[in-house]
Every structure is written in structure tokens, then in C-alpha cells.
Amino acid sequence: MPQRLALLKTWLADVLETAAFDIAPASSDASFRRYFRLRHDGRSLIVMDAPPAQEDIAPFLHVAELLSAAGLNAPRILAKDIRRGFLLLTDLGDTPYLQVLADASADRLYGDALSALLCMQQLDANRLDGIPPYDHALLMREMHLFRDWYLQRHRQQVLSPPQARVLDEVFERLARSALAQPRVFVHRDYHSRNLMFTEQANPGIIDFQDAVQGPVTYDLVSLLRDCYIRWPRARVEAWALDYLRAAQAAGIVADVAEETWLRWFDWMGVQRHLKAAGIFARLDLRDGKPGYLGDIPRTLGYVREVAGRYAELRPLLDFLPAEAAAAGGAA
After folding, report:
1. Three-class SS of residue 23?
2. For residue 32, what pLDDT band results from cuts at 50, 70 and 90?
């Protein structure tokens, strides 16, 4: 890594035509990417280091252009070296939504985030040719992360053939529900750590390189049933139904009954939260990043609460730990 950092600094000196800049770690994420904050000539910029052997920056570049063209507040690309995996970006600040969300600010902040989501979901389908589909295979691979990394590796649970069959049947129901929904642009990680609070054009949107074309409720439930912060069920459902009305007015969805919408929303959340629990376990076991383990009880608490309300999902309760029950609350 020191050698790569030296290479990055050399590239920046060429781009800026000076070595008179300061660079310091800004953040890392749940991948091989690293981010640095660069200060130069009174400006603050962000540098992405994405090692080409592990990360392809082409999707980031494509989606950044899509979002910016739609008037959304995404980082602008100031310089790039695709071969070496370096990007120089505008800086959206260092205040994620998670730091500023509170009872009093939630309606305003989520209002901004939902307006941005409405704009994303209206992206012209003709411009999404390079965005892959959120298909059945991907939905199932994601849920298998729960089985493979959370149950079998993290909890060291050996599944009997009947147990494995029960899980696969529930996974199949969740996938079918997702595929029955209208298909739109999906950020795929739209939550309080990937939305930056900005004074102008709030929110700043980051970490969008894994975007797909998929279910209309995916980003909505990612935002409102966030793995990192929890709100009462009644408030979440009110926000979700407000969004349904806005999406109908915008022509994103047609005449969808509120009951159907909330069922899509609930089941989509279960799919996402099963995936997330598997990813959090994998980050610890494979990547040596245990910092997300503390978010598993909240994440699986959502699964427990929702599965308890639908007979078709109730078999999941047998695979959830006691701490998920404690975190269940009113999802």
C-alpha cells in the first residue's frame, strides 16, 4: 500500500502541476476502495484509489455522469486514470446523514432524500443501457450470503437438507416479489452513510457504483429501514406511502394499492437485510473488518419483525438469533 500511495501522489502532482498539496485519509468503505481528502490552493477535493485488480471504476464513472446529468448532487469527475484506478472528485463534505438525523430533522432530511430518489427513478430508460438488471440470479446470490456467511460461517450453524430447503423456498418467494415490481434505476446502497448533508442541493449522493435496474421499493426500504438507524414502524410506513403517492403522480408506478405497496416494501426489506447480515459477517471473517458486527442485531431485527407479520416468511424466524428479537421493536 505505501508503494501505491506514492504512485497516487505522483499522479496527483502531474494532474495539479504541483506537489504543494496535503492529502489525508477521508474514509474507507466495505470494499477495496480508499478515499483521501486533498487540500490544495484553498480547495478541498476527494481522491479515490480503486486498485484495478479488485475494483472496476467504469461503473462509477458511468453512474456519476447519469446522476449529474439529471441534476443530482453527485461527485463530479475532475481527473481520472482508469488504468491505475485513480479518480479526482469534487468534495461533498464530511457530514453523512447518519450524523445529523434526529427526531426533529428526519422529515426534512428524508424529504430531500426522497425527492432525490424520485428524480433517480425517473431517469430515462434509454440511458440505462449500461446498467445491469437486478435479476433472479443476483437476488438469490445476495440472499445466499446470509446462509453462507452469516449462518454457516459466523454462527457455525450446520443446516440439514430440510432446513436448507425451507430457506431456499423463502428466498424464492422474496425474489418473485422483487421481480413483480416496476423496474427503475436502483442505487443499491441508498442509506444514511451514503447520503451527505450539504447546504446546497441536499443530499450529496455517493457510493453508487453498484447500481442496477430493479425493484421500485429497493432504495426506498434501504433508506427508511436503514441498517444503521431505526425509526418507528408507523413513521416509516407513512413516509413509504407518501412516496407511493409521489411516484404515482410522477408516472413511476401506476395504480398500486397501498396494501400491495407495503407488502412489496416489507418483503424487499427482508431480502436486503438478509443480504446485509451476510455481508457484515463476511467483512469480519474474510476482510478483517469487524466494525459492522454491531449492526447485525438491528438489521436482523427488521427481518424478525416483518417475518412475524407474514405467514409465508415466518419460517425465517427459526434462523434468527435472540439478539434480533431484542432489536425487533417496531420496525
Report:
1. strand
2. confident
Please report whether residue 331 resides in a domain: no
230: left (phi > 0), else alpha (psi -120 to 50), else beta? beta
Task: Give the total number of structural domains in the chain.
Answer: 2
Preceding omega of 25 cis (within 30 degrees of 0): no
Q: Would you say how long the chain is, in residues?
A: 331
Q: Identify the residue whose cell numbers are 440439514.
A: 160
Give the predicted TM-score (pTM) of the model: 0.94
Using one digit for the tens of pLDDT, what is the confidence trace for 4-14?
A: 999 999 999 99
CATH number, domain of 80, equals 3.30.200.20
Residues 6+ positions from 266 with CB-CB distance below 8 Å: 221, 306, 309, 310
Could you say which of 90, 109, 143 is where a domain stops? 90
Query: Is 174:209 a contact under the CB 8 Å cutoff?
Result: no
In a 3-state reduction of DSSP, which class is residue 14? helix
Digit-coded pLDDT (tens) for 234-261: 999 999 999 999 999 999 999 999 999 9
Supply the range of the domain harboring residue 301. Answer: 97-326
Bridge partners of 86, per DSSP, are 49, 81
Judged by DSSP in three states, 25 sits in: strand
